[in-house]
Lipopolysaccharide export system protein LptC (Photobacterium marinum), 187 residues
Amino acid sequence: MSFRSLICALLIIICAWTGYYLLGKYWQDDIQVEPDAEKPLFTGSDIVNTSYSESGLRSYQIDSDYLEHFSKSGDTDFTQPVLWIYRNGSETEWRISSNTARLDKTQVLQMSGNVRIYNLLPESAIKVIQTNSLRLDLINKDFDTPDQVFITGNTFQNEGTGMKGNIDRSVATLLKNVKGRYEAFQN
């Protein structure tokens, strides 16, 4: 075998191997990657969401700096949420704010971090309720917390551990270690 034949054979082998290698990459099936179920389905900034009752009256509105909605769990996470609850669909009665909140698919809102509940009606006895966490059912408006609670009104201050109540009925009950300070009206 001559030197020239050896070089030609070697070039044919190199070309055949290169072609096989390149076609192998081309014919290879694409690997399908399943989307990560833990990543949010959608996100948003400066969100305003208004919810209406079955009769068409405004029930509540949630404003948030940022939100993430997860499709698998149905949860929605809020950053710096403010919940506005309406009386008879027109008058804003309550303003509830916190650092973070999670709304689950059963319409239960779990708020945490610096929770502040303001009654915006001028004739209300309760002005501000402060606590660290609050669980609020947005359908029947029941709420509760196991944390320390401070309730402030025009002529009183109460504190206790744990609270339950209902936003629609304007009822809040402190559960344990209740202390209060009351002042008489002055005309």
